Amino acid sequence: MASRRTITIGLDGGTQKVEIQVPDGEPPIWDAETRLNVVGQSVRRLDGADKVTGRARYTSDIHLPGMLYGKILRSPHPHALIQSIDAKKAANLPGVKAVLTFEAADSFARLDQSEDSGHPSPTPSSPSGTQARAGRRILFAGEEVAAVAATTPEIAEDALDLIEVRYDILPHVVDLEEARKPEAPKVYAKGNLPSPSVGGHGDVEAGFKAADAVVEGTYTTPVALHNALETHGAVARWEAGRLDVWASTQGVFGFRDDLVKFFKIPAASVRVQSEYLGGGFGAKFGAGVTGVIVALLAKKALAPVKLMLDRHEENLATGNRPSSVQWIKVGAKRDGTLTAIHLRSHGTAGIAEGAGVSGPVRMFYSCPNIKTEEQDVFTNAGFAMPFRAPGFPQGSFALESALDELADRLGLDPLELRKKNYLETKAKVLMQQYDLAARAIGWSRRRPPAAVPKNGEIRRGLGMGTAAWGMYGEPPADATVRIGSDGRVECVCGTQDIGTGTRTAMAIVTAEVLGLGPDQVQVILGDTGTGMYSPASGGSVTLTSILPAVRSAAEGARSKLLEAAAPGLGAPPDRLDLKAGRVATKDGARSMTFAQAAGRLKSSVISAQASRSKNYEGMGDSSWGAQFAEVEVDTSTGQVRVLKISAAHDAGRTINRLASESQINGGVIMALSYALLEQRVMDAPTGIVMNANLEDYKIAGPMEMPEIVPIMIDAYDVANNIGVKGLGEPPVVPTAAAIANAVSNAIGVRVRDLPITPDRILALLGKVKEA
Ligand code: MOS
Fold it and tell me: Are residues 480 and 466 in the same domain?
């Protein structure tokens, strides 16, 4: 059932009324005209103090009586057949309580490497499929071979050394280009090249014929590693057929469901909790191999087991952002109007798929003729997992670089060229973001190539990039808000706070509805035991999924409270308001405190549960963003220093301004690191990762930090009762492109490879041979 409502959408200063279909039961919609008290303010994280004082309990802080420590034995070889495993010595080591190997009757977790599917996914396969595994094939160095649980981590480590594995070593391939050759060792029986993905519209050849200028180039990006501060891991305990798990995961429900599937037990028998999380960035969906191994060890040892990966393991076998080689060709009319974009790419996601990069080409600009051809290439390397805006940082680097080159060729301002090809949207928010971020960086100072000095040791340049991200969240998502007769307020949703401030956002929305401050709301989350379903925190859909449910639940609780307060105030509930911690008659004549009203409840607690409705039809636009960078290049050393980045973004209606700005800052930092420093290095002859640590795999630190100017814009396109959209991923999308364009602008030579290391700069300047 649905009803029609008129709402106001757009931007402050540019709104319009539209009529939309809204599912029955929706509260009054927070649209462009709604003025709110708590929502949109800068609210400090409710758990900030707990985090900085160490009170916050992460997975590695969980200690259970009699708990054992798990460790995993990993293959040193990139491609091998396991002939035998002798784990007797390990099992006999005093202190060892459980040993798992693929040869034992234990159902060992592993990737689904079904030879036929060619679609391996990093989820555990069912036990039945992994029983007869004589000659199990290892596909990358670091893949799990065996595991132990012991009374101390040291004994567990020693036990691993006692496990004797006989491998038949097979030929491997880890190099992207080698893997494409017909004679290359095959990662899967069907070869290394799954079906390519082809898309687009129009006729690119006709588009290029109609163009006044055409540029083309090949851009490369490296494999990058997630490196969430907290590694993967979990604690598992079996008791009376019930499985309790504390896990570092982006999705407690997905984690639970993987275990339910693997162990073939009812969902009601498994509880997964994640009270605090040190980041995930896409690599922590589901139980994965690690989660299943912990639970298996605990089951076999008849004792709780904790297993947290170390950084080395984390960087071998938990996911990565695939590499890319992108040939892109772009054509435009003299005035900058795009006529055609053709993208042909390949890249490796290791033993998995997921190296596509065409999102930006398909989403960012209006162009009549687009063709995308993407090819995954299997290599004997760790599988990719989604990594903050999968495919977009890579794709935007190539596309936005090509557009800058095109603008230079046409003698146009790169910003004007983007505006010329602006994709018409409801909120028109991107135009505003372009202008605000351009002003913040001082874009008018940008010099066209001809005006950039070719001498001088230190050279500066300006560059820009665009972001779009198109996820709005959807049902199911459930929430409960409770008010106790003692005045306490609880907001409950199973969702996890992966470090983004979900907890605080839930409190903000509840507080808004109940006329309280956010710190007056207790948030309960990170627990499948709440029974309040939430999707995984990924795809930038956490708040967009759960907050509409939280809002509806809070509205339900509000109604019940007003009913209880009404008699005492001598007015019907619809003549009452909840504001500034008081329940008052709308004329303000009579009032009581929130606690007094709660004291009038006829039970010790009232609660209202609500579920998220479908997105309003025809509503829901992308989240947009624009980033501008100013860099300084030392042409004698090749060192690039990013001086400043301005970053304008939106998330529909901003819920917490401070957290949103933090989200932008974090995205910029992560993507700057990707642009300048990060790359996984494989040794082709041995097939191993050379830098699976944080010493040789460099990530940006304080020394690399520029001034960052985060700019949050409210865009009201209102696809849900709050009008919130996603912000987790967009800020990481345009940064590398903006930096690369700024460096190209500074040195007068096009940067075509990430990361932008000093040796590459010196090569571009002709000071050393090709890096
Ligand atoms: Mo993200 S890659 O959706 O955690």
Answer: no
Q: Which of 576, 611, 646 lies at the terminal end of a domain, its last residue?
A: 611
* Same domain membership, residue 493 and residue 535: yes
583 is in which domain, residue-wise? Answer: 473-611
Contact in structure between 290 and 308 (CB atoms under 8 Å)? no
Question: Which element (helix H / strand E) includes 663?
Answer: helix 657-676
Q: What is the pTM of this model?
A: 0.96
CA of 384 to the centre of ligand 1 (A): 12
Euclidean distance between CA atoms 259 and 63, whole angstroms: 21
CATH of the domain at 665: 3.30.365.10
Q: Closest ligand 1 atom, CA of 386?
A: 2
Q: Is the pLDDT of residue 128 over 70?
A: no
- Is the domain of 497 the same as that of 605? yes
At 771, the pLDDT band (50, 70, 90 cuts) reads: low
* Phi, psi angles (nearest 5°) of residue 629: -125, 145
Could you report the per-residue pLDDT of 698-744, keeping only the tens digit for each?
A: 999 999 999 999 999 999 989 999 999 999 999 999 999 999 999 99
Last residue of a domain, one of 298, 317, 336: 317
Instruction: For residue 340, tell me if it sits in a domain.
Output: no
Q: Return the amino acid letter for 673.
A: S
Q: Are residues 464 and 518 in the same domain?
A: no
Cα 615 → chain centroid: 21
- 536 and 636 assigned to the same domain: no
What is the count of structural domains for the chain? 3
The helix/strand/coil state of 380 is coil
Same domain, 528 and 666: no
Is residue 238 one of the residues assigned to a domain? yes
Q: What is the CATH number of the domain that holds 282?
A: 3.90.1170.50
Ligand 1 atom nearest residue 539's Cα: 3
CB-defined site of ligand 1, < 6 Å: 250, 280-282, 386-388, 390, 538-539
One domain, residues 477 and 466: no
Tens of pLDDT, residue by residue over 471-484, are 788 999 999 999 99
Say if 541 falls within a structural domain.
Answer: yes
Q: What is the DSSP string of 61-94?
A: G---TT-EEEEEEE-SSSSEEEEEEE-HHHHHST
Question: pLDDT confidence of 609, banded at 50, 70, 90?
Answer: very high
pLDDT digits (tens, 9 = 90+) for 527-546: 999 999 999 999 999 999 99
Residue 450 CB neighbours (<10 A): 8
Side-chain-side CA neighbours of residue 494 (13 Å) = 25
In ligand 1, the atom with minimum distance to the C-alpha of 284 is: 4
Which residue among 277, 281, 502, 623 has the greatest number of ligand 1 atoms within 8 angstroms of its CB, and so is best to mutate? 281
In tens, the pLDDT along 191-202 reads: 999 999 999 999
313 alpha carbon – ligand 1 mean position (Å): 20
Asked whether 568 and 490 are in contact (CB, 8 A), the reply is no
Kindly state whether residues 158 and 277 are assigned to the same domain.
yes
